[in-house]
Amino acid sequence: MFSRAVFRAPRVFAPRVTLASRWISTEIKSAIDEAVSSSPVVLFMKGTPEFPQCGFSRATIQTLGQQGVDPEKFAAYNVLEDDDLRQGIKEYSEWPTIPQLYVNGEFVGGCDIVMQMAKSGELAELLEGSNALIPEEDEGPTEAQVTPKKR
């Protein structure tokens, strides 16, 4: 029925990109929206802050701890507990790796970005500006107020 062409046009070599992408459901998107807005600082990670399950998640959680993030203003979500969350967060942020850090609802980046920002001081500025750090305690007066006792 169809004949083969004797002449074949040269192929244009272009890299094939296969995206393993699926559309994020509205249910997953709204659950992630809610999670991202649940605290000023939100980390999607493998494992928990107490027991990270990958080196990148461990490094990110340690960096946040070193920065002095207030535990009351921090939430972590274990993507290993829910495959929909694990895949959905990648589509939500359009970032292919985990961990993922959000501050005040805005995507900051993954482990490499967090490390670079910590090194440059940008992360401390961002967290301080977001009022997400443990408040400094008032140490009292800077000079001693001593009055001698009269006898």
Automatic annotation (TrEMBL):
**Domain annotation Glutaredoxin: ranges:** 41-108
| An example molecular function term from Gene Ontology annotations | 2 iron, 2 sulfur cluster binding
Query: One biological process GO term for this chain?
Result: [2Fe-2S] cluster assembly
Matching entries from Pfam families are given as: Glutaredoxin (PF00462)
Record's SUPFAM superfamilies?
A: Thioredoxin-like (SSF52833)
Disordered: annotated segments: 131-151
The answer to whether keyword Disulfide bond applies is no
What does UniProt give as GO cellular component? mitochondrial matrix
What superkingdom heads the lineage?
Eukaryota
PROSITE patterns given for it? GLUTAREDOXIN_2
Q: Which Gene3D superfamilies match?
A: Glutaredoxin
What is the protein named? Monothiol glutaredoxin-5, mitochondrial
- Taxonomic classification, please? Eukaryota, Fungi, Dikarya, Ascomycota, Saccharomycotina
